[in-house]
Write a structure and sequence with these properties.
Layout: E1 2-9, E2 19-26, E3 31-35, H1 42-50, E4 57-62, E5 65-66, E6 77-80, H2 92-102, H3 107-121, H4 136-149, E7 154-158, H5 166-183, E8 186-191, H6 194-200, E9 203-208, E10 211-216, H7 218-223, H8 228-233, E11 240-245, E12 252-253, E13 268-271, E14 277-292, E15 296-303, E16 306-313, E17 323-327, E18 334-336, E19 342-343
Parallel strand pairs: 3-8, 3-9, 6-7, 7-8
Antiparallel strand pairs: 1-2, 1-4, 4-5, 9-10, 11-12, 11-13, 13-18, 14-15, 14-17, 15-16, 18-19
Helix pairs in contact: 2-4, 3-4
The protein binds adenosine-5'-diphosphate and magnesium ion.
Amino acid sequence: MVKIDNVCKHWPRSTTAAVNGLSLTVEKGTLVTLLGPSGCGKSTTLRLIAGLDLPTSGRIEIDGRDVTSVAPEARGVSMVFQNYALFPHLSVRDNILFGLQVRRTPKAEQALRLAEAADLLGLADLLDRRPAALSGGQQQRVALGRAVVARKPILLMDEPLSNLDALLRQEMRHELRALQRKLGLTVLFVTHDQAEAMSMADRIVLMKDGRIVQEDAPADLYARPRHAFAARFIGAPAMNLMPLEPGPDGPVVAGTDFAPGAPDGATQFGVRPEALRPAAQGLPVIVESQDYLGAETLALCRAGTTRIALRLPSASAPLPGTRLALGWAPEDAHFFRADDRRIEPAGATSMARAAPRTLIPNMEH
Ligand SMILES: Nc1ncnc2c1ncn2[C@@H]1O[C@H](COP(=O)(O)OP(=O)(O)O)[C@@H](O)[C@H]1O
Ligand SMILES: [Mg+2]
C-alpha cells in the first residue's frame, strides 16, 4: 500500500541526513509503527509520505502509484498530528467537517459521514462544543474524526497519544486499534514509546539515526533483537547487557569467572530481567537495591563489573546484600558482536538460524 524505496532527506544546513536510505513496505490493512528515540527521523519520514516535505532522493509509492512529488491532497492519505491541530474558534462539528466543507462535498454526504464518525468515536453529544471545552482524550477523538470523515485509505499518525495521561493512553490504544480493524485502514503510526508500539502494531520499524535497525513483528523484535540497540530499546526495563572478557575456557562475564557459552566473536552477553531466576548454579551476583513495583520487584544486582536487573514476584524478591546464582533458559541468552550486531550461539536451533527477514511485512501476524 505504501512503499518507500531508498529515501533520503537532508535538511538544509544540517550535516547529517534526517532520513538516510530508508526502504519500507506497509501492507494494506495493517498497522505499522515507526519507533525510535527522539530525533531519529520518524516525523520526517511521515511528512515525506504525506507530501508535506519532499525527499532529497528516493521514491515513494502509494497503492502502486509513484507519488514522490505529488501534492499532499492527491496522495490519498490523512494525517493526525501530536497537537491535534484543531481550530479553537470552530465547534467539534465544524472541526470534523472542515476538510469536506473546503472541498464542497454535498451537504447530505457531509451529514452522513459526520454521523458515522461521531457514532464511531462517541462524539455525538459534543458536536456543538469548542475544543477548549473538551478533555485531551476528546480532542484526540475529534482529530481522529476529522481524519475518518476524509475516507482516505491511509492514515498517518505522529505521536497521537503522547499528550494524554497514562490511563487514557492505554484506552486510546485499544480504541485506535479497533477503529483501524473496523475500517480496514492502513495506518502508519509514529511513537517513541516501545510499549505503545508493542501493544498496537502488526509490524514495528525500529529506527536510529535516520536508518532502520530492525523491522519485525513485535514478538520477534522482543525475542530476537538483531542489534544491541534493539535489545536495549524493546522491553522495560531494558535487556541486561554485560561485556565479555577472555577466560580460561572461553569468554566470561566481565569481572566474574562465569562463562555463558558465548560463540566466537561475541563481546556482549544479554539476558532480559524477566528471564533471570535464582538457580543452584549460574551467574554469581550480589543484590544491591530493590525497586518495588507492586506485584513485581526489580532486584538491582552487581554481576562482576556490570549492574543488572532481575525481575521477580515481590513476595520472592531477595533483600539487598543477598548473594545469588542466576540461571535462564538457553533461548533467553543473547550475544552481540563489538559492532552491536547479533550473533547466534553455537548449536542454536534451526528456528533461531532462520534467514533474516526481508522488509516485506508478513501477513500472518
Ligand atoms: N524542518 C526541519 N529543518 C531542519 N531540520 C529538521 C527539520 N525537521 C526535523 N529536522 C531534523 O531532522 C532530524 C530528525 O527529526 P524528526 O524527524 O523530527 O525526528 P523524530 O520525529 O524521530 O523525533 C532531527 O535532527 C531534526 O533536528
Ligand atoms: Mg517527531
